[in-house]
Design brief:
Elements (H helix, E strand, L loop, with lengths): L1 E5 L22 E10 L5 E3 L7 H5 L7 E5 L7 E5 L9 E5 L4 E5 L2 H18 L4 E9 L5 E7 L7 H13 L4 E5 L1 E2 L2 E2 L8 H4 L18 H13 L3 E8 L4 H6 L4 E3 L8 E2 L4 H17 L4 E5 L14 H10 L4 H18 L3 E5 L12 E5 L5 H10 L2 E4 L2 H4 L23 H6 L16 E8 L7 H8 L2 H10 L7 H17 L22
Parallel strand pairs: 3-4, 3-5, 5-7, 9-10, 9-20, 10-13, 13-16, 16-17, 17-18, 18-19, 19-20
Antiparallel strand pairs: 1-4, 2-8, 6-7, 6-8, 11-12, 14-15
The structure holds ligand TNX.
Length: 521
Amino acid sequence: MKTRISILFFLILFSYLGQAQEIIPFPNHYEQKEGKLNVSKIVTISTYGEFSSLIPEFVKTAKRFSIQAKEKVGKGFIQLIWNAAIYNPEEYRLNITSKAITIEAGCANGCFYGLQSALQLISNAGVGGSIPCASIQDGPRYEWRGLMLDESRHFMGMKEVKSLLDFMALYKLNKFHWHLTDSQGWRIEIKQYPLLTSIGAIGNLTDPNAPAKYYTQAEIAEIVEYAKQRFIEIIPEIDMPGHASSAAKSYPEFSGGGSERLPDFTFNPGKDGTYTFLTNILREVMTLFPSKYIHIGGDEVHYGNDKWNSLPDIQQLMKTHELKNLVEVEHYFHNRMSDSIKSMGKTFIGWDEVVQANLPISNTMVMWWRQERPELLKESIDKGYQVILCPRLPLYFDFIQNTSHKYGRKWSDGKFAPIESVYNFPGTEYTSGISISTPLVKGIEACIWTERIHTPERLQFMTYPRLSALSEAAWTEDRVKNFDNFNSRMNRMMKIYKDFGITFFDYRNPDSSPEVEGAYL
Ligand code: TNX
């Protein structure tokens, strides 16, 4: 079978010239050899058996260029070869000889990553250019290489999400954590509870009366499939029991009230009906997302649970279960939700507030976000929880990336999140004294909170190029990482951004890319 197909969008930009080894994230073993491989206009990919069904899956919409896929081994310019001896599903070996590029992997994921590297090399060289012969042996430093997007505070929509997924695929990032609910808007259709979207999806942080914006279940399914083709797993987050105003105002019978500043901020942990309501929601959510994980937030409940002190249901709950204070009520809530998640066969993920809730070790993952509280990271590891590192500094992309920027966040001491600190993560600055080289630390994740990001343009400005630095932090071992070398590889990456109309911050020439205005100061 010989099909004319076209390749994953941006990778083949034959007009650019550059150094062949300009791969981002940089491979973990790269050895240059004698000789070179010339790149001509037609690139064929050949494979057979295990990987043959893979090609049409990911080789999709063309930009400027098309390739030919052949189902015959040994014939293509790029040859995909299944190698059962490569156990890590994400690992690949890539060999460039003067005749061809071979990619060996034991799994489709590794093959996909090998292709990403090969296609970067080819596009860097350009038609008529050449790639130095080399041998690459590569696999990720972390198995969890994540990006989170908050679509509640400001809804970004399908086009932006797909574009993020495309760049995640280029960067070998593999977990998209989707913050779909929060006080400012409920963004996922739940058929059993239609008011969640007919009421709860109205508004955003800038305009509480903005027309309802949310994803239908059909749209969610489309995005999940789009991600799957790029070897990205989507982990939905339904935040509870705080950050819940949009749901609590849709179904006030489950509201646990709020504070003066944050009305209806919580669900009511004192009512059995609340657990049924939330479990039914999660059950529907789980049918849409094949991931074994579900994130239930759990953060910042104390911001708006004053009302719990006076709600009779909660006072009764405290008596019955001998709960001494509101934190214990919170923990009780987490345990009940954890039970229900476990009974549905999924793993519970929560923000680092859940560390002290006594949740089952085997079924809980913690996201450490409070960089000023390293003791919570230590406690998570000591207790045996699996952990993802996503400390605000330097991994929250709503923090500014340059001193001249005004609209994003800064920490109280003036610290923010420049690209270099993302690149150097985990390093030791934020995790000093804590042994993070344990298998319990599954990986790292950057979070894009959108209180101060109200348009796709600003979303991109805050994301790029820090996402490229994140990818290298997540994929590449310390012994190979080098910020100066990364900087030189960014020249080409910025051309890719330009070519695809991405608004990015040119961190080496700040004046050339002024800050895209934020929602408010
Ligand atoms: C903290 S991270 C939050 C979010 C905000 C973010 C802004 C976390 C678990 N909670 O609700 O959007 O800071 O940087």
